[in-house]
Design goal:
Elements: E1 2-5, E2 8-11, H1 21-28, E3 47-50, E4 53-56, E5 69-71, H2 84-91, H3 101-116, H4 134-140, H5 151-162
Helix pairs in contact: 2-5
Pfam families: Fer2, Fer2_2
InterPro entries: 2Fe-2S-bd, 2Fe-2S-bd_dom_sf, 2Fe-2S_ferredoxin-like_sf, 2Fe-2S_ferredoxin-type, 2Fe2S_fd_BS, Aldehyde_Oxdr_Iron-Sulfur, Beta-grasp_dom_sf
Keywords: Iron, Metal-binding, Oxidoreductase
Length: about 160
């Protein structure tokens, strides 16, 4: 099968049809930024962008993604020039132990794209002008858990990245 990851095309041969996208990224392509947390789609540590939309890679069978484009945390920025969300997390200390950080960052990038496209969330009101309110960001990031509790610093990091 063919899979494009972070702009590079990969041909995967002999792939077990039960292999998840997460396991392909970590074990076959050695992209270990994406973390295996719960392996049940409950924590968000494995969040990547699949054709531009955020997904839990532990729930996606790799074989079903023929010709898909995957972006991991390693593919967001460039050496010396981090993605605005990565920069925001650094500047606002939006992490502690760092285990959930790659998934948080990928999810934030996806959430900001959803906001830019005008997609509502569960808390978006009919007259909601502020799609970067704390409530809005919390709702959009609710699928990503942080055991350390670095949430208060993630909010300004994400809000600032939206303005860059």
């Amino acid at each position: 099968m063919r899979l494009t990851v972070n702009g590079a095309q990969h041909h995967l041969v002999g792939l077990d049809p039960r292999t998840t996208l997460l396991d392909v990224l970590r074990e076959r392509l050695h992209l270990t930024g994406t973390k295996k947390g719960c392996d049940h789609g409950q924590c968000g540590a494995c969040t990547v962008l699949l054709d531009g939309r955020r997904v839990n890679s532990c729930l996606i069978l790799a074989i079903s993604q023929q010709d898909a484009e995957v972006t991991t945390v390693e593919g967001l920025g460039h050496r010396g020039e981090p993605h605005p969300v990565q920069r925001g997390f650094l500047e606002h200390d939006g992490f502690q132990c760092g285990f959930c950080t790659p998934g948080q960052i990928c999810s934030a990038v996806g959430a900001l794209d959803e906001i830019a496209r005008g997609w509502p969330s569960a808390v978006t009101g009919d007259d909601d002008e502020d799609l970067l309110s704390d409530a809005e960001i919390r709702e959009r990031m609710s699928g990503n858990l942080c055991r350390c509790g670095a949430y208060p610093n993630m909010l300004p990091a994400i809000r600032e990245a939206a303005g860059r």
